[in-house]
Batch of 4 targets.
Target 1
Amino acid sequence: MHVDQAIGGLRDVLVHSGVWDKALVILLADHGEGLGDHGETSHGYFIYESTMHVPLIVHWPVGAAKFPERIAQPGGLIDVAPTILDFLHIAAPPSFEGASLLPGHGDRTPYGESVYPQENFGWAALRSLQSGSINTSMRPKPSFMTC
């Protein structure tokens, strides 16, 4: 509930100051939460959808182009900065590896990893690539999972 109150407070301040309608507000997290899925009570060990799925919420300024409320295509945190620059009509630097999430920028294949088990226990790192509903897990014994 604390996060909801903090976000609501931010919105209230922006509304009362007259900035909300002009603001581009982006809310995101750096990871999902296992919440007991697959026996993981936290996050960091595994690369299941529950820990890899990250919320991304965008409030577009009033009068901005109409973008879909939801996109089914996977994206990654690496795509957030290029999306902001694309919205502002600023070219992304060549060093950026992500791609804009706005329409017209093609398919993405997000990469994910968990190196926590490797760094803390000497176990193998877990890595994944996601394309559509297929999540390819790269670990000592490769496997394919549907999301």
Note: The CA atoms of residues 79 and 98 lie 4 Å apart.
Target 2
Amino acid sequence: MINITTINRKLSTFATMDVVMDISLCTLAQLAVGEEGIIHSFTDNQTSLKLLEMGCTPGEKIKIKYVAPLGDPIAISVSGYLLSIRKEEASTILVQKTMSNR
């Protein structure tokens, strides 16, 4: 089981990196199909615990694979498998956008 104190410590470590590295961040929900990013942090502690348990950990590469016809849910590739999440959950994941070949 993941301890919420450990999560907060890890998130605060990543948050301090913004000052040093000037990282341009967006939410996972803002990425289009085929775009990739590196998970940076989360905006909601309660949702972050659930996402961490499903393999969405800071530093992990993530890619938008599919979006449902009405825009929700979305399928993402993370930790070697496809995961379907709601757009509301995706909006709590901050990512550093990376270049991809779609």
Note: The chain has a mean pLDDT of 82.
Target 3
Amino acid sequence: MRPGRLAGGFYAHYYGILTPDVMGTPRTIQVLAAVYIGGRGSLWGGAAAAFPLIFLMNWLRSAFSNLPGIDLILYGLLLILVMVYYPGGIAQACRWALERIGSWGKRRQTAVAGGPDHVTRSDA
């Protein structure tokens, strides 16, 4: 089962019915932005992005209440930045960071063990 279907099922169960009043354009943009920023191919990325993103945007909406629609503009800018620099979202950035950390640790281990030229062969 796809995560979107599961989330939609929980959301519909919570509200009892989905109408255009409940699921308007701003709410749809929130959900899509969280999923895209988290990582389209990642299950945990969307969830990891949703909590801080929704909290931040609600705070911005209340802090800048004299500028209606500022949250939608920021969603758009954030989506553009993610599309350009991290098309895989937060999940891709975390994978990249873990690979960098892992390769750094391997390089350090080979340097301590005698370097990449230090090879032991039984037939040599």
Note: The radius of gyration is 22 Å.
Target 4
Amino acid sequence: MGPSLASVGWPVVDRVFGFSPHGVFIAIGFAIGAWLFGRLAPRRGISLDAVNSIVFWSLIGAIVGARVAYVIAHASDFASPLEWLYVWKGGISLLGGIAGATIANAVNIRRFGLRFFQVADALTAPLALGIAIGRIGDLIIGDHLGKPTSWILAWTYHGGRLAPPFICKTSCQAQLQGNQIEIIKRGSAELHSGLETIATGVGVHQTAMYDMLIAWALFGFLWWFIREPRREGTATLAFAIWYGCARLLEDFLRIDKRFGPLTGSQWTALTVVVVSVALLTLRAMTKSPGPTTPGRGQGGEALEEAAQPAPTEAA
């Protein structure tokens, strides 16, 4: 085990008054994100009826998409198709939830005469904020733990029952992909492959913590970025590239099922990043005019004011 200058850690809590902090903070994050979307949407010419419909179908799409994406990536882990429906046992994908919400609204927004990027630009900052808040629940229950490490942000175990697949008694142990076994104790962590110890540390990478910090930084950037008018779609593509790159890198610190060199989430993130970079590059090369998304505080007017007609020149 290597030396560590510092570490972070806390006792995990899997239930509070019978509720999982994981689900509670996802709900809080979604609710606050929906509220902020409702505040930003009128400036983009999105009516209250459209906001309510988008939030509703986002909720349905996110729930279905998050589970479907997880099942597809971990189909071999289920004993029967019936277990695909056992959502209460855990197993959801954040990227799948975002994809599900997007698909659910692809047709829905057409009913209100809205453009995809018109809506998506208003959702980027609220989505980043919702992710940041939702990740708090992951930290409380000790979810998304990665490989052993001794770096300054190594997460150390301080007691409590970790989220599955860990089973905790005097120590916590999990059977992971590739027949690897990770053992987490107070002050140490080990990763074994057969009889060989392949990694040790004072703790493990807490990838949910990294994701939370990245999401807060992304929210701060987007909140600054959308203060001024921008060409429609730029904020959405910026979100996709930032968060896609983050998820691509984070998963290298986890032990998860892989399809070739990457996890399912990494393949999804890589695809989103490549497409987003290509679209930004194409737009920069062609310099074709398009609608502009108004700034969130343009002219110092209230956010609830109905949006003015979008100019045709790119900002």
Note: DSSP finds seven helices and 13 strands in the chain.
